[in-house]
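Follow-up to my post from last week.
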Amino acid sequence: MVNARLAHDDYARGAVALARDLLGRRLVRVLETGDRLCGIIVETEAYLGVRDRAAHSFGGRRTPRNESMYGPPGQAYVYFTYGMHHCMNVVCGRAGEPVAVLLRALEPTEGLERMRVNRASARRRSAIADTDLCSGPARLCQAIGLDRAFDGVDLTTDPRIFIEPSPTPAAARGRVRRSPRVGIGSSGEWSSKPLRFFFDSNAHVSGK
DNA sequence: ATGACGATTTACT
DNA sequence: GTAAATCGTCATA
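User reply:
Got it. Predicted complex:
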């Protein structure tokens, strides 16, 4: 099967189920040149929608910035933050429910050299380690070249980006662990809910 | 018009 | 460990 990718129905599920299910699957970015920048998803976070105080859509908040959270399952929600970073989510709520899964880290598998170029800063002398290439929500976007131009794109049809359906072999993964989400400050009980999912013992997971 | 802040990362002490 | 970087977005006026 060529260009196999997850379809609409694969994304239309609860955020918790999808967050766990995306672990081990490959995110593929196809450049204009045809080059592929790929990585295995090793860390995600579920954002549950209007009742989730840590979500951008908490309380039904709907603005130009987070409009794509209200889109159909399989759509990307890419936002800009801290004046310099982009982060990517996969929308999974049905019929206008602003629910999504944040992609927090990848284990890069293709196009590492290009990722290194994309991630390089002016100062740095030495090459960036493989484990620092995509180990964070903003890092992975920078590595594979995602910005606001990708906000709202359809992952089930866009030739530039999609997620492959076949999971990588279990042997290449690890045990799935959960923890509270990162960087959401004090959002009451929502700060401590275990909505972050990641492979234990994977060096590409952020923050360790 | 203004001000505070952010689902982060990097560099520096 | 702490702080700077850096600016679009949103709430308030």
